[in-house]
């Protein structure tokens, strides 16, 4: 079924009720039907997917299957995958077939999970609506006139539409959590350094972190088990003991009050002016639900969201201007056709290969790092970053998790903010501080607005508290059904399958079962 | 603070991005809008605060100085815009 969770699919595979090839064909069929309307994928390669699925079935037949062997998954097009076109949503990499695998990709290969395709994204992960993609915007499966959020918008949309049971994403300032909120799915950005950045095309290296996007917190835990781990090829990868992130899920400490003892922080800064009515109400209702099964703690000081946005739009562009200097038309990717000399080639290649938002951020980054402005901008932003991290450290002396909204509004209309970079940046006002501090953060569905668009609850934990956060989210999902609501596209796909089964009845009759 | 047209041209050249004469004005206006947002942070007193370069205060790991990469020149150059005899070609730099 289009809405099966990873857990359910893994059980079907383990009991021999389906095969990886059959499952992959199911999802590829949905992609064929729905992707032309949604534009969630940049690249689909059915032959390659099915070859991986056959290999997974062979592994299972040999009795060597792991927990998720044979379950297919989609990958954000920011991850280099050998033999796959890897564009990062940019014309600059329109012809880049990666010669190697990112660490995350090799982890999923080792787990035996076939790749369903590469998902659409904002160009170089710079955007909050998926409208900066060279490959065109992704449509939100809840309302195709609206954005899915960004930058991991293709990943969020394909999970919400049932085109993939789960997908990978990356989060530099909210790029997993904000699209998860806008598409009504569950997404987790782990603590910085938990997942290797090797082979993940760099945007802002001190902030970028990969994570899972799925229908449930339980699925996110299973995926994090695959993604996390030390990798010597990323100099910021953390050497920690292997952890089972799903370990707490099955065991509530107390059946009546499963979260007894949990201390919740509610920063008043997260409930300020920019928060719209329906979102504010849904988040307050979710908090009330938590209070009934946990120890509430009403106040907690948190960094002023506005300041974190300001610091972020210095630090992230500064790092981006340095990272994106590698795209010069010499070794890979796009090169301009007509040039007089080397400088001319660089300048035209980058002017033609990058889109407007990417160029803006490179220009800002270049400026704040240039002579005479470095101290006033870059160093000042780094000092604010320390203050933000210290504010969180202070808050976690008094609470275990912080709750608040993921995004100030539900999905907005395509084109609504496309011409106003500053308004677009404010979509990430509640998520950015988490990246600056390097903390783990999640978004999970907690309600709908008057138009029926999903609303996300943000859960922020202390460093390395992913297992606890996942359990908190899982307990919430056991008690609520927001995450079980189907987008119109997914509902259509579920009915399509039912229709399919109905039509195949006479076929069964021919085989003699009616005789 | 606000950027002039000459500032934009200078930054664009530093970043090696051609900005056409028609684009300079709009680029400046958009960048100035973003700098207004950034300006908020100047109001915060950060005297005595140490800059934080990284999400976690960790030391850079070192590895033994040995060759770890296999020779994959052919695979890497297969996707290059222009190569010859194992070299990447660019316009003439030195006369």
Give a verbal description of the structure.
Chain A is built from 17 helices and 10 strands. Chain A is an alpha+beta fold and 515 residues long. Chain A has a single domain (6-307, 383-502), classed as Amidase signature (AS) enzymes (Alpha-Beta Complex). The model of chain A is unreliable at 507-515 (pLDDT under 50). Chain B is built from 3 helices and 2 strands. A two-stranded antiparallel ribbon of chain B has the order 1-2. In chain B, a hairpin with a 2-residue loop joins β1 and β2 (87-88). Chain B is flat, with a radius of gyration of 22 Å. Chains A and B meet through α9, α10, α11, α12 and α13 of A and α1 and α2 of B.
CATH class of the domain at 5-43 in chain B: Mainly Alpha
Beta-strand residue percentage of chain B: under 5%
Number of domains of chain A: 1
Arithmetic mean pLDDT of chain A:
92
Strand neighbour order, sheet with most strands of chain A: 4-6-5-9-10-8-7
Oligomeric composition of the shown chains:
heterodimer
Radius of gyration of chain B: 22 Å
Classify the secondary structure makeup of chain B into a structural class.
mainly alpha
What's the total count of β strands of chain B? 2
CATH superfamily heading of chain A: Amidase signature (AS) domain
- Number of E-type strands of chain A: 10
Silhouette of chain A:
globular
In the CATH hierarchy, the architecture of chain A is Alpha-Beta Complex
Output mean pLDDT of chain B: 91
Sheet of most strands of chain B:
2 strands, antiparallel
Low-confidence stretches of chain A: 507-515
| Helix content bin of chain A | 40-55%
List keywords for this structure.
heterodimer; A: 515 residues; alpha+beta; Amidase signature (AS) enzymes; 7-stranded mixed sheet; 3-stranded mixed sheet; 17 helices; 41% helix; globular; B: 95 residues; mainly alpha; Histone, subunit A; two-stranded antiparallel sheet; 3 helices; 2 strands; 36% helix; flat
């Amino acid at each position: 079924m289009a809405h099966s969770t990873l857990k359910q699919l893994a059980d079907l595979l383990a009991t021999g009720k389906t095969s990886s090839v059959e499952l992959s064909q199911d999802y590829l069929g949905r992609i064929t039907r729905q992707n032309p309307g949604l534009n969630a994928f940049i690249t689909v390669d059915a032959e390659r997917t099915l070859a991986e699925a056959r290999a997974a079935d062979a592994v299972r037949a040999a009795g060597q299957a792991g927990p998720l062997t044979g379950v297919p998954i989609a990958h954000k097009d920011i991850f280099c995958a050998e033999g796959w076109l890897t564009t990062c949503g940019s014309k600059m990499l329109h012809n880049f077939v990666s010669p190697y695998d990112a660490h995350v990709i090799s982890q999923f290969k080792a787990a035996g999970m076939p790749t369903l395709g590469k998902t659409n994204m904002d160009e170089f992960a710079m955007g909050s609506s998926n409208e900066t993609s060279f490959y065109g915007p992704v449509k939100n499966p809840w309302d195709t006139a609206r954005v899915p959020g960004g930058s991991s918008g293709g990943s969020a949309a394909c999970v919400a539409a049932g085109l993939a049971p789960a997908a990978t994403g990356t989060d530099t300032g909210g790029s997993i959590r904000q699209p998860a909120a806008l598409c009504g799915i569950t997404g987790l950005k782990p603590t910085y350094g938990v997942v290797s950045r090797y082979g993940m095309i760099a945007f802002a290296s001190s902030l970028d972190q990969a994570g899972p996007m799925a229908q449930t917190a339980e699925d996110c835990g299973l995926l994090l088990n695959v993604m996390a781990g030390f990798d010597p090829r990323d100099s910021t990868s953390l050497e920690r003991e292997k952890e089972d992130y799903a370990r707490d899920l099955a065991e509530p400490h107390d059946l009546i009050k499963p979260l007894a003892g949990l201390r919740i922080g509610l920063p008043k800064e997260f409930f300020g002016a920019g928060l719209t009515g329906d979102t504010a109400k849904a988040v307050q209702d979710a908090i009330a639900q938590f209070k009934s099964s946990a120890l509430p703690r009403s106040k907690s000081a948190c960094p002023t969201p506005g300041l974190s946005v300001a610091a972020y739009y210095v630090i992230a562009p500064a790092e981006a201007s340095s990272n994106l200097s590698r795209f010069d038309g010499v070794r890979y990717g796009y090169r301009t056709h007509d040039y007089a000399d080397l400088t001319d080639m660089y300048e035209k290649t980058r002017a033609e290969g990058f889109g407007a938002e990417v160029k803006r951020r490179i220009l800002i980054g270049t400026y704040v790092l240039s002579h005479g402005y470095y101290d006033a901008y870059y160093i000042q932003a780094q000092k604010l970053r320390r203050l933000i991290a210290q504010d969180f450290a202070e808050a976690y002396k008094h609470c275990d998790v912080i709750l608040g909204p993921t995004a100030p509004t539900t999905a907005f209309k395509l084109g609504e903010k496309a011409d106003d970079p500053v308004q677009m940046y404010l979509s990430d006002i509640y998520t950015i501080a988490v990246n600056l501090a390097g903390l783990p953060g999640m978004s999970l569905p907690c309600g709908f607005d008057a138009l029926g668009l999903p609303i996300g609850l943000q859960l922020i934990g202390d460093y390395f508290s992913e297992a606890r956060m996942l359990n908190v989210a899982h307990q919430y999902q056991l008690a609520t059904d927001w995450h079980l609501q189907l987008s119109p596209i997914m509902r259509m796909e579920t009915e399509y399958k039912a229709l399919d089964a109905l039509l195949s009845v006479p076929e069964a009759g021919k085989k003699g079962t009616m005789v | 603070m606000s950027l002039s047209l000459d500032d934009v041209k200078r930054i664009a050249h530093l970043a090696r991005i051609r900005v056409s004469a028609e684009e300079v004005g709009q680029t400046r206006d958009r960048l100035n809008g973003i700098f207004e947002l950034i300006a908020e942070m100047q109001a915060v007193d950060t005297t005595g605060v140490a800059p934080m370069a990284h999400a976690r205060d960790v030391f850079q790991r070192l590895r033994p100085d040995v060759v770890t990469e296999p020779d994959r020149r052919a695979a890497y150059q297969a996707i290059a815009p222009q190569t010859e005899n194992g070299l990447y070609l660019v316009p003439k730099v030195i006369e």
